[in-house]
Amino acid sequence: MCGIIGIFNNEDAAQLAALGLFAEQHRGQESCGMAVTDGNTITLRKRMGLVKEVFRQEKLEQLQGHIAIGHVRYPTRGSSTQFNSQPHVVETLSGPSYALSSNGDIVNYQELRKHLESLGVYFGSTNDGELLLKFIVYHVEKERMPITGAIRELMKHVKGAYSTVLTTKTKMYFFRDPYGFRPMSYGELSDGTMAVASESVALDILKPNWVKEVPPAGIVTVSDKGLHITENNANDYRSIEHNRHCIFEHIYFSRPDSFNFGQNVYKVRMKIGSLLARDDADLQADVVVPVPDSSNFIALGYSRESGIPFQLGLIRNHYVGRTFIKPQQTVRDESVSQKFNVLPNFYEGKRVILVDDSIVRGTTLHKIVHLLKEAGASEVHLRIGSPMVKYSCYYGIDTPDPQKLIANQKSLEEIREYTGADTLKYLSLEQLSKSVHHPEDYCSACFDGHYPVK
Amino acid sequence: MCGIIGIFNNEDAAQLAALGLFAEQHRGQESCGMAVTDGNTITLRKRMGLVKEVFRQEKLEQLQGHIAIGHVRYPTRGSSTQFNSQPHVVETLSGPSYALSSNGDIVNYQELRKHLESLGVYFGSTNDGELLLKFIVYHVEKERMPITGAIRELMKHVKGAYSTVLTTKTKMYFFRDPYGFRPMSYGELSDGTMAVASESVALDILKPNWVKEVPPAGIVTVSDKGLHITENNANDYRSIEHNRHCIFEHIYFSRPDSFNFGQNVYKVRMKIGSLLARDDADLQADVVVPVPDSSNFIALGYSRESGIPFQLGLIRNHYVGRTFIKPQQTVRDESVSQKFNVLPNFYEGKRVILVDDSIVRGTTLHKIVHLLKEAGASEVHLRIGSPMVKYSCYYGIDTPDPQKLIANQKSLEEIREYTGADTLKYLSLEQLSKSVHHPEDYCSACFDGHYPVK
Amino acid sequence: MCGIIGIFNNEDAAQLAALGLFAEQHRGQESCGMAVTDGNTITLRKRMGLVKEVFRQEKLEQLQGHIAIGHVRYPTRGSSTQFNSQPHVVETLSGPSYALSSNGDIVNYQELRKHLESLGVYFGSTNDGELLLKFIVYHVEKERMPITGAIRELMKHVKGAYSTVLTTKTKMYFFRDPYGFRPMSYGELSDGTMAVASESVALDILKPNWVKEVPPAGIVTVSDKGLHITENNANDYRSIEHNRHCIFEHIYFSRPDSFNFGQNVYKVRMKIGSLLARDDADLQADVVVPVPDSSNFIALGYSRESGIPFQLGLIRNHYVGRTFIKPQQTVRDESVSQKFNVLPNFYEGKRVILVDDSIVRGTTLHKIVHLLKEAGASEVHLRIGSPMVKYSCYYGIDTPDPQKLIANQKSLEEIREYTGADTLKYLSLEQLSKSVHHPEDYCSACFDGHYPVK
Amino acid sequence: MCGIIGIFNNEDAAQLAALGLFAEQHRGQESCGMAVTDGNTITLRKRMGLVKEVFRQEKLEQLQGHIAIGHVRYPTRGSSTQFNSQPHVVETLSGPSYALSSNGDIVNYQELRKHLESLGVYFGSTNDGELLLKFIVYHVEKERMPITGAIRELMKHVKGAYSTVLTTKTKMYFFRDPYGFRPMSYGELSDGTMAVASESVALDILKPNWVKEVPPAGIVTVSDKGLHITENNANDYRSIEHNRHCIFEHIYFSRPDSFNFGQNVYKVRMKIGSLLARDDADLQADVVVPVPDSSNFIALGYSRESGIPFQLGLIRNHYVGRTFIKPQQTVRDESVSQKFNVLPNFYEGKRVILVDDSIVRGTTLHKIVHLLKEAGASEVHLRIGSPMVKYSCYYGIDTPDPQKLIANQKSLEEIREYTGADTLKYLSLEQLSKSVHHPEDYCSACFDGHYPVK
């Protein structure tokens, strides 16, 4: 999980890029970076830390130029050092310079890197953004391809997920893998500036005139002459005839106010809640409580459908970031306590429908169910807004090894028992398919192991 | 607005204090500090910054001792420097040492400080915590009073709000002003450790066996022999026979999961929402939307009473802290955009009941109503969970000068017009009195100018 | 050992004070600070670190005002925290504010602090500068003395060494203890600015028109009306009729280009070298080598007198500050190696006169003699530019406990043996008295234990 | 100007490398870095700042491994960013990893980089170390050469100065350009550890058993099997039959206690002083004063030969680093005042021989001569320990454009007039040739424009 931004033709490009990254901060809090060009040089700044720490006003003022691309990083490939953060830059003495930011994950990274190394292309990081950049630069500089040609070559050979923005000193390009794994939107701001981002919310903060999604396998070139869209036939670059959008962008990753894959995220979430509720026609309960904030809209959807009152029964400490203080003997379970607290004097004798978006390891839910029971809940019915996650993701989500996925290791009943819930239901794959307009266009690999790209 | 913590008799005192401060971070993000004693020396650390930045694991490990007191600060009195942050410490060569943290504000600060200065007591800051500390130290060291006697003397002469914790190298004391302006709770942890905090949520994170509120004018002494409570008659120290709890602790400041002044904060908020709804019996609308997060429960209460659906129609960026990037020409109104975004494709043609907790200056609500209208809302009915704030607070809340309070300067209709709402209603003082159990025990100075302490 | 600075009546006061402190950096590298006033407020900045780190250009620009006092600190009394660094500030609500920096050490600190505490004056540090400041403030504010009267009162009661600068918002005062232990010079800059400093070199960098020394027990008041000198009779404030200048300011502490106690430091040092050489009339040797940099001029004086060639035979690494890397098994004696290296291919078969200014613990000289022998020196004759240091200093020099002073524990012959030198001679007290103009005006306590102030 | 270090086969490799870099700090204060390997991974740390700041104890402890290479940087090629600092690292997926540090400058950098870029090798910096590293990696990985073969290939094609250390995860290599522009020494420590450094002083601090210089065009391989030296015939790789050592390493750059190009630096400097003095047989003067510290030994040599007394008449502030506070109107010429102060009461009526090592722009000497005259010097005779510097250096010294070299623009008499000296003499090229053992082995390009490598 990462987020990207690109701004073209605005003298406050760095400011706008920082605002966009800030709106995408939920996609990665580990490091962030920006490359800005004024047509002559490319200035790069990237650091460990949050957008508002790395890009303070005085730093932004040093990033002069009319094109800016940026990145927020949640670590997937490569260790957590400044050298693995993005954007990556290649400058050539013969003329052109390139900077690139990407969101996604490359399945055949090892193979491609070994190939490029065998051609004399060397690497300073283990980050997939550097691979994409050097792949393109090699094909442009050595193979004399035009940049869009090199990107098409990339689409042929690079397997995996990528929503990517590339800039030279004069033109900006952005493109998306043929399966459309990750979201990517672009738009025009009120003053003619062009902008691209992982999520539409990063454009919203910039007050766009209009916003569109980049089609799978689409390449957009932005230059002084305006926008040029190369709408490639995605099927030429993929083994199946459908997209493979990541359903977890709807369920968990994206902000609820984003518009991804042709749909409003919050509406998909409410629909999921509604579908869960329909399946519980006979369940008697007093209150629907979400695990905040990701499950709020699923719980709202459940409440609307069922008529059972919604309550923000778990309070989240928004200062937490990662767990702050490491566990000590004196304070049990405090990692979940640092994050969540129950409403006091609320649960006594109540039958609670607890809603979460998914179960990965199950440890947090185990603790939360325990908290509710301790607080007096007479019943806890756990409802999950996604099917059982049994397989690892190779397209940009940091899921653990399959052995650490509880649904890969345990049965439904065993999971229920582990969490301590009285009943447990997951959303079925069939229900899930009703929550979106074109279910055939979604990847279900983490549920059923049908990987679209090996 | 500040928050305090005290931990007695735990070898991880600093760790526990940090956890408590972390749970009170919403009460002050400017600076934080901690004084820890092992019985021999007092170690002090205080800095500008958030709890998780100032008290990283390696710093906590340097704060050895079994008693810790701490503070998070939202600036009220004194400028924003490290010297004005708390705790304050006085060490005497002749023996005893003292450290103190306080939440509140002293009305007769100038007079008391001049008096102490005339006695030879000098000050290194303009912070009221230092005043309280030196007042006590002077009466103990110079006037030979016992510490509890000095605190009683303080209650006689110091006018204003204070929920305060004081520690020596062996004993911890905490006390609360006779009016009970600010909340203060204490409890025993499962291992016998005693803890005190501004809000009960800071004790919740420490897994208490039991939690109680410190009574107005109450003094609690904690020593190796256990807890000793000096329950003074508050009326001996005040001009009226009732408490003066700050109603805004219920409406806005405290976390919804806190238990203050004998009531659950979230329940008061839901009741307020319910009272607002009863007054809107004839209002036709499609959705109830809170300004998150402070107004969530008020809006939930309104929705329950009215039957109009609740929706989280404004999405808040939780990374924002203060407004991140300062306004530029290119991006209009982005300070509110950085904080809030509307759910897309939601408002078109909808009649919206927008709920906020209060109006101070009115500028943010003006922008939010504008956002909703731009998003297509056909009507915006603004409902406020408190009466008109016409007067400044002198008891610990950082309200601006009366001239900057919109309700001090404009009529109801003028405010409605300024915000752009179609209708505007405030909670009346009479309604407010129904939202709490003992309305006579609350301060209403910011609404009606009846200051309990001059 | 510390250094002070004061600047009066210059709109770049903070800049000039920083330059002065920078020239006095050798007097203290642990922390530094500055208090600046523009007539209305006093702005304080003090931190651990070097002058050029703490007072970067952007920080200096925030220190606006026409009066600035500053301090560099070498830790003597009080632990190494920011709270113990200087200047100290007292602001009173009733009007006046005060800031103070001092160089020296107070012998009756405990007694005075206990007395002030019994009067209600409390302390935030264990630093003697805070004691001096609060002593004065108490007598001015409580006892209604004029400031110069309070300083005279201070001279009566405070035992020890102090060269001190005090400022209010409008006037600057500086004064020196009745014994004149530490140096203190003042002067007028070309543009009428008045400046005071511990050493004359700190004025040199400011291009003064003239420079004078502050007489022992002298008090200088600087105001808009100019300079007023209160030349108290020092004998009224001391038990002997002579000054007690610290001879080590000549031998070691002060920069060689300073003018202290009526004499050029470098000339005293050369004279000492000359006196040592006269005593070695029969000594055959090939080269005179100083332990750099403090002994350079002593060795030059020895070389001139004896005719034996001078050589910079030990090279000092000026980046060292304190010893950089702590000793490990793999690298023996590297603390001295980090600081000094021998000229290669130089010592083989040479008879070396090695000159150092003093011996405190003796460990460094032990290693240096060893280095020279390893490098091939056939003889090492160690000559010391001061008598045997047998007693601790209580007037501002950080000497260790007497048991750790090698000359307190061992005989001359034992010291020679420990160092590994072939011969060892100290400067005698009698010789030392010939190196200065008025030997009766110097303190010899560290040599003979005759402490002028108990 | 830069400095390098390499340590092989020591479990405290990072500690030893830091000590070595510390001893070479004078060769570059802008940034420093280190790459350490434990045989499995290479850990890199590089930052702007001094060695003792960047490599604090806790950071060194994180750099685990038995091979370490390091670098201190004085900026020559490439701008001042972390990305341009050294070492550079290339890791290949197929197996080997490489890290490299180099001192020198590549004349045909542009041409070589363009060539490598045309082969698909891309760059993340404009630093010549990265060029050398990728040149080698390309020839090893792509052209299948052994590493020593790739280094020989490098010697054929790379024009310029390089004293370079390269490490893989198991072997360390170091080599020097065929002209031997920059110094490079290696040795064995007492415990069998092998070490290499730019200057012998960096080995001295590690207590070596023996030290040798790397011959021009020499390649040394260090592995578990010990040391293997490939002594190439330098003439095979160069257009002339002599070395081209940089004479300024003797005159100015190297520490006086270093042994470079077969000679003791301090002895060359004393010889230069002696040669200058012989040419002044009839000059009557009272004192010889060096511009410290670089000219100390030249002045000592002059004094010995002439019999005119030596005096450290200018005192240098060793805390200065770069000029600390930027010039303001109020303080004239303070950039030189921050660095140097005259001995007070010394110069009055004296005829001074002022000795400096070289004149580049002449501005500092102009100010120093002025200082001496102001201090009362009746005559100032300026003597320079090198010929007129008329041409820029392209082999690792940061000389300005020829137009800014005063000797390129002005005649001897004009320079004398500009400096304000009464007489001015440079060392002649003929004299210079007498100061070293093999004058034919030195580069004189900056004096006569005869560049050995175009």
Structure report:
4 copies of one chain form a homotetramer. Chain A contains 16 helices and 23 strands. With 454 residues, chain A is of the alpha+beta class. Chain A folds into 2 domains: 2-238, Aminohydrolase, N-terminal nucleophile (Ntn) domain (Glutamine Phosphoribosylpyrophosphate, subunit 1, domain 1), CATH 3.60.20.10; 265-439, Rossmann fold (3-Layer(aba) Sandwich). The first copy, chain A, has a 7-stranded antiparallel beta sheet with strand order 3-2-4-1-10-9-11. In chain A, helix 4 (109-118) crosses helix 5 (128-141). The first copy, chain A, is elongated and about 75 Å long. The model of chain A is unreliable at 327-333 (pLDDT under 50). Chains A and B meet through helix 1, helix 10 and helix 11 of A and helix 1, helix 10 and helix 11 of B.
Label this structure with key terms.
454 residues, homotetramer, Glutamine Phosphoribosylpyrophosphate, subunit 1, domain 1, seven-stranded antiparallel sheet, elongated, alpha+beta, 2 domains, 23 strands, Rossmann fold, 16 helices
